[in-house]
Amino acid sequence: MALDVDKARRETPGCFGLVHLHHSGSALMPNPVVDAVRTHLDLEIFRGGYEAEDYAREKLNNTYQSIARMLNCKESEIALSESASVSWNSAFYGIAQTFRKGDRVLTSRAEYVSNMIAYQQVAERTGIKVSVVPDDKDGQLDCRALETLIDRKVKLIAVTHVPTYNGLVNPVNNIGQIANDYQIPYLVDACQSVGQMPLDVVQMGCDALSATGRKFLRGPRGTGFLYIREQSMDKIPPSVLDLHSATWVERDRYELQSGARRYELFESNIAARIGLGVAVDYAMSLGLPEIYSRIRFLADRLRELLSEIDGVTVWDKGVEKCGIVTFSIAGTDAEKFQMVMREKNINIGVSKRNCALIDFDDWGVDALIRSPVHYYNTEDEIEFFAKEVRKKAASPD
Ligand SMILES: Cc1ncc(COP(=O)(O)O)c(C=O)c1O
Predict the structure, then answer these.
(1) C-alpha dihedral, 37 to 43 to 49 to 52, nearest 10°
(2) Is the CB of 332 under 6 A from ligand 1?
(3) Domains in the chain, CATH or no CATH each
(4) Is the distance from the beta carbon of residue 112 to the nearest atom of ligand 1 less than 6 Å?
(5) Which conformational region is residue 204 in: left (phi greater than 0), alpha (psi within -120 to 50 degrees), or beta?
(6) Is the CB of 170 inside a 6 Å radius of any atom of ligand 1?
(7) Closest-lying ligand 1 atom to the alpha carbon of residue 85
(8) pLDDT of residue 397
(9) Rounded to whole angstroms, what are the CA distances from 174 to 147, 254, 272, 302?
(10) Which of 175, 278, 309, 350 could form a cystine bridge with 36, CB 3.0-4.6 A?
(11) pTM of the complete model
(12) Is the pLDDT of residue 168 over 70?
């Protein structure tokens, strides 16, 4: 069934007077999410924080259940956190405890910058080697090349599904098939794909997957989550513990929480977590296949309009291109353009070299404009923005 875009816009106060094309930064929250957060904050104001949490227990449980439904896993395989990075770090630094000198990690060219930094830190500490798998001719991770790089020393395959700086969608299911064939732990960064497209951790065959709430899921800021496959939990020890992730049972002994909650810590923003669950329900009520098909329709339209403009280069690559539209305008500073657009109530993003060093150095660019679309954008907004780009291209800085 087609999405009711008008209804979605009516339920999104931010849509009025603003063209929001910054979804890979943070999306606009719909009313049900805002209401859920406000309701819980009120409960905290009038009842007290701990008491409010007790009253809201069911809503909080709903967040785990909804995420599990969205990812096709068990509720006990979900840990909530404050961000995608906290979740990813929890899985990576957990796995890294088992690394020995000479072990290898295979990753993608489009890997998120923070993940790349974490690999380097662990490489310095433990002497592991990190190899970046080349892309194929279409610009997505080359699965054949991945297979040729595998040997007994490979202890982790970790890839970013959709990079922060491009419309690329890496073939995570095929990569998972290879990881599973060779019985190598497999970690997926789904920060930019969650909420944008359907995700199925069983089809992906991943041991762990990290994601955020604030981007395409349209949840509150300061929310993230981690999936860890039940059978993999013993192989991924939590890297930090507290009284929530473990129980102190004897003077010199603790027991880990059962399930993925061993990867959480005690303190959290309950209102935001409840809002996250509502955001997941909202996306699922619209249908993730429907959301993705509308996103692709709008993104293709924007790419088409941009490609027709002299001086504009669209940089999106891969067989399948998602909602993240990335381009440059010859002779124009991306950040200045972003500020000019902001004054006109058009929100866009900028990706800089140090977020995407491998590709940007190959392409010889320092910064690119990022204008990711979501299903609640309209064709009029896309055309309006393309006209602004056309004007800028005709009179660069
Ligand atoms: C691909 C990818 N992974 C991870 C992150 C980090 O997310 P967070 O800021 O929630 O930690 C981002 C943020 O933009 C991202 O684009």
Answers:
(1) -100
(2) no
(3) 5-29+287-394 (3.90.1150.10), 32-285 (3.40.640.10)
(4) yes
(5) alpha
(6) no
(7) 11
(8) 86
(9) 11, 39, 34, 29
(10) 278
(11) 0.98
(12) yes
Average pLDDT, integer, range 305-321: 97
pLDDT digits (tens, 9 = 90+) for 182-218: 999 999 999 999 999 999 999 999 999 999 999 999 9
Token output for 111: 């890997």
Question: From the CB of 85, is ligand 1 less than 6 Å away?
Answer: yes
Q: How confident is the model at residue 1 (pLDDT cuts 50, 70, 90)?
A: low
Per-residue pLDDT reduced to its tens digit, 101-115:
999 999 999 999 999
Residue 2's pLDDT is what?
81
End-to-end C-alpha distance for the chain, whole angstroms: 45
Ligand 1 geometric centre to CA of 128 (Å)? 24
Q: Tell me which residue of 33, 27, 30 sits closest to 13, measured CA to CA.
A: 30
CA–centroid distance, residue 250 to ligand 1 (Å): 39
Nearest to 26 by CA among 214, 283, 219, 224: 214
Of the residues 85, 89, 161, 217, which should be mutated to test ligand 1's pocket, given the most ligand atoms within 8 Å of the CB? 85
